[in-house]
UniProtKB/TrEMBL annotation:
Residues where FAD binds: 239, 252-256, 292-299, 390-392
Domain annotation Photolyase/cryptochrome alpha/beta: ranges: 2-137
Pfam families per record: DNA_photolyase, FAD_binding_7
Family per similarity comment: Belongs to the DNA photolyase class-1 family.
Protein's name in the database: Cryptochrome DASH
Cofactor note text: Binds 1 FAD per subunit.
InterPro entries: Cry_DASH, Crypto/Photolyase_FAD-like_sf, Crypto/Photolyase_N_sf, Cryptochr/Photolyase_FAD-bd, Cryptochrome/DNA_photolyase_1, DNA_photolyase_N, Rossmann-like_a/b/a_fold
Cofactor: FAD; (6R)-5,10-methylene-5,6,7,8-tetrahydrofolate
Lineage, broadest ranks: Bacteria, Pseudomonadati, Bacteroidota, Cytophagia, Cytophagales
PANTHER family, sorted: CRYPTOCHROME, CRYPTOCHROME DASH
Primary role: May have a photoreceptor function.
PROSITE patterns: PHR_CRY_ALPHA_BETA
GO biological process: photoreactive repair
Length: 486
């Protein structure tokens, strides 16, 4: 009897899951396992914030529970454990007399460290470890260049890949699963057992009514969202025009959280997009979603090429000359949405309250932290890591490298594409009437839209008229915002 243990990681789905399909093909019986690693919830050594805050933890719990239900509907189950994955998996593999452990290939250090430890444990037991590359639109083996020759400029990457590589078809969802018997399924952990206090649990379980998307983890909701964004609403057909929005559910796809946890495969999105293009409409917007998914691929390949550099202040460029401030008070004002710059504060408060922030918001708050406050960008990236539901090591740290000017694009930072954001220009362009900032900063609700982005300039009489006292109801600005205006 040939048995394979399938270790689910950031591939929490049954559709387009090559590793799982191969396990079913190659074994008489398969044992699907998920392991919650307590190290995911440990605090950042300097900042004290947990690596995974409650929003993502809750999304992960929902995703794993959904996967378990889907497997149960197919006559199988998902074995759930809490512990060090290398130890737990090796033990179970021995228990079921597995010939191999199959799993998805990850890219970044903490994840590959676990793979190495597991491999070291399995080797003397004569159990194979087989890793499947499954997270990108283009398979790493189909790249038309060696990874060491990955173009540094995104456009060159895109041109090469679009010209010379093909996207592989999706793998079918398995119909039946032959489960290895006699292993206790194990209880799902809860937010309490994962260490979240009541106040944090309320944040996740009684979500703020102002949030734009009711994110629910799992493949089921991921496929619903895909269906909704394309077929039910045709929102995809106007994506290019709406994607820079700030308010509401529909200005962008909101696929990111499901993609990050692997509840949704990028190739599944692509397949549905192609079908949509042939059955409904093909235009710049339908292409633009693929374009954005290519950015996601790009950052994965960048992480593969540059390894741990993406996590260091000196970045991909290995620029040791730049010295950053390590001002914790100022950093906390940024993190808590208390800078006195409404566009920054509204975005940070949205993320703190919901676990999500738009792409436009992320570009602005990151630029502000690095370029205006001069604070170590790795602090900002660590904060995003903690708070975002869609946190993905490659996309997060890769984007932060770019914003901080330590990425691999030689044209950035003083070149033809300086990445400095004039926050006032951005705010007045993308939130012309101030609706977004007022949504998240109710203390500014009565300030006219034309004045709200420069609220620190209000006279005492205006403050009284609009019901806001600067320095009391809303903070004084941490930097002089008039530099953006005059
Ligand atoms: C500083 C910073 C940090 C970021 N951190 C993350 C992160 O941890 N996880 C994450 O998924 N995205 C991250 N992004 C990228 C982007 O902001 C989000 O993917 C996007 O806002 C998610 O919303 P959406 O799914 O509606 O995006 P859409 O606009 O609908 O885009 C569709 C998909 O394309 C991909 N995508 C779009 N833009 C980017 C980009 N710039 N880089 C990589 N992929 C992209 C995402 O998978 C996204 O779901 C970050 C951007 C910045 C500037």
């Amino acid at each position: 009897m040939n048995r394979i243990l399938y270790w689910f990681r950031n591939d929490l789905r049954l559709h387009d899951n090559e590793g799982f399909v191969r396990a079913l093909e190659n074994a008489d019986q398969v044992l699907p396992v998920f392991v919650f690693d307590p190290r995911w919830f440990t605090p950042h050594p300097r900042l004290g914030i947990s690596k995974m805050h409650v929003f993502r933890a809750n999304f992960l719990l929902e995703s794993v529970a959904d996967l378990r239900q889907s497997l149960q509907r197919k006559g199988a189950d998902l074995i759930v454990r809490v512990g060090n994955p290398a130890n737990v998996l090796a033990e179970i593999a021995v228990e079921i007399d597995a010939s191999a452990v199959y799993t998805s290939k990850e890219i970044t250090q903490e994840e590959t460290d676990v793979e190495s430890k597991l491999s070291t444990k399995l080797k003397p037991l004569n159990i194979d470890l087989k890793l499947f590359w499954m997270s990108t639109l283009y398979h790493v083996r189909d790249l038309p260049f060696e990874i060491s020759r990955l173009p540094d400029v995104f456009t060159q990457f895109r041109n090469k890949i679009e010209k010379s590589a093909e996207i592989r078809p999706v793998f079918e969802t398995p119909k039946t699963i032959r489960l290895a018997p006699d292993v206790l399924p194990g209880e799902m952990p809860t937010l309490t057992t994962l260490g979240f206090d009541e106040q944090n649990q309320i944040l996740a379980l009684q979500p703020d009514s102002r949030r734009s998307v009711p994110f629910k983890g799992g493949e089921t909701t991921a496929l619903d969202r895909l269906d909704r964004y394309l077929w039910q609403t045709d929102l995809i057909a106007t994506y290019k025009e709406t994607r820079n929005g700030l308010l509401g559910e529909d200005y962008s796809s909101k696929f990111s959280a499901w993609l990050a946890h692997g509840c949704l495969s990028p190739r599944q999105i692509y397949t549905e997009l192609k079908r949509y293009e042939s059955e409904r409409v093909r235009n710049e917007s339908t292409y633009w979603l693929v374009f954005e998914l290519l950015w996601r691929d790009f950052f994965r390949f960048v992480a593969l090429r540059y390894g741990t550099r993406i996590f260091k202040s000196s970045g991909i460029k290995h620029d040791l000359s730049k010295k950053y401030q390590h001002d914790e008070d100022l950093f906390l004002k940024w993190a808590n949405g208390q800078t006195g710059i409404p566009f920054i504060d509204a975005n940070m408060r949205e993320m703190n309250t919901t676990g999500f922030m738009s792409n436009r918001g992320r570009q602005n708050v990151s630029s502000f932290l690095v370029k205006d406050l001069d604070i170590d960008w790795t602090w900002g990236a660590a904060y995003f890591e903690s708070r975002l539901i869609d946190y993905d090591p490659c996309s997060n740290w890769g984007n932060w490298n770019y914003v901080a000017g330590v990425g691999n694009d030689p044209r950035q930072n003083g070149g033809s594409q300086p990445r400095y954001f004039n926050i006032y220009s951005q705010a007045t362009r993308y939130d012309e009437q101030g609706d977004y900032v007022k949504h998240w900063l109710p203390e500014l609700a009565q300030v006219p839209g034309s004045l709200v982005h420069l609220v620190s300039n209000l006279s005492l009489a205006q403050q009284e008229a609009y019901g806001v006292r600067l320095g009391i109801d809303y903070p004084l600005p941490v930097i002089d915002p008039t530099k953006w205006v005059f």
